[in-house]
Amino acid sequence: xREQAKKPIDFDKMRRRRQRLATLKRLVGLSCVILLVFGAVxxxxxxxxxxxxxxxxxxxxxxxxxxxxxxxxxGQGHIIGNIGNNLTIxxxxxxxxxxxxxxxxxxxxxxxxxxxxxxxxxxxxAYTPGGLSVSLHxxxxxxxxxxxxxxxxxxxxxxxxxxAVVAPVKQFASVVSVKNEKFEEIYVWSSPEYVSExxxxxxxxxxxxxxxxxxxxxxxxxxxxxxxxxALEKAEVARELTGELTLDxxxxxxxxxxxxxxxxxxxxxxxxxxxxxxxxxxRQILGFERHENNYLLLIRELDGKTQSLVLLDRSLNEIxxxxxxxFTRDIALDAGAAYVLHAxxxxxxxxxxxxxARLARKGIPQMHMAQGQLYYLxxxxxxxxSPAEMVGVNSQNR
Length: 398
Hints:
Elements: H1 11-49, H2 52-61, E1 70-71, E2 79-83, E3 86-91, E4 94-98, E5 104-108, E6 116-119, E7 124-127, E8 133-137, E9 142-147, E10 154-157, E11 163-167, E12 174-179, E13 185-191, E14 194-200, E15 206-215, E16 218-227, E17 236-242, E18 246-251, E19 257-261, E20 264-267, E21 276-279, E22 284-291, E23 294-300, E24 307-312, E25 318-324, E26 328-333, E27 338-342, E28 345-349, E29 355-360, E30 367-370, E31 373-377, E32 381-385, H3 387-394
Antiparallel strand pairs: 1-32, 2-3, 3-4, 4-5, 6-7, 7-8, 8-9, 10-11, 11-12, 12-13, 14-15, 15-16, 16-17, 18-19, 19-20, 20-21, 22-23, 23-24, 24-25, 26-27, 27-28, 28-29, 30-31, 31-32
């Protein structure tokens, strides 16, 4: 059988095929580069929009420091707070921000006496009730400031960077102005009555506020709920509280609106959840702290002398209660313990309100729980103990 003759190789055809493949590879590579460039431009525009440079500077400020204790800033009337994992001290000379390693990040000196600092995870709104100035801050810089015609009534800031400021104008007793992270006004509402409390939903989109009103000479608290996606005229009173003074209004972790008054703690009902409440039964509320799904109350009993500690769950069911023998200056709460500050130190209780430890140290005026760290003040220093360290130190003093 004869072998079939092999075809001669067409080198010219091969060269043309290789040229086409090379051209196709170059086109594909160029397309990828173009896509990467457009992607980078789009990403950069997004990062600029959310304040990428500010976020980087804020992150940089969280590093460094020798750790606590740290010296207290000069001034009187220190109030401890936090912005995320970082500590704030507010006093009559200004606002001071420290990272978790006790490095002083920055100070704000243009605040009036009696100023308020309201913080979210990464933003802080500062104002003086009745003052004309309001300012928004991150850890690293002042982001926004405004001078108003009439004094500020109240304000709030959420984790999205939205912030609300309430102040009167000539025509209305209260105007609520909500701005987004780009400082654009996204919602405004006016009332002929006094707005005493405002709360923004943590992730944006809605707001709750308290309007102080009267009916036949009797005090009324009117709780309004707002959906920023709905028409302004749809804002309605969600709850009328007759004869009650609203002390605080806030959103819970599961998105419900909670109201603290001088008579009860109230969870407003939703489409899927019924209204829940815990009545103080005529007793006086002295302190209120919340952590995730639990609430800690300090109550003065009807005899006017005895104080009680009450722990509630997320549905306002009573978990535990305990009568306190010492006059309480302050309370705090975290995931695993309740803390009570008195003249001789700090007592630690488990979540059944059974005593577990004590820090014997006189003269502590105030304490504050922030991200699992318990901060407290001495005469001239800011101190910190984690819950684990608290038990270890206190076990020697029990």
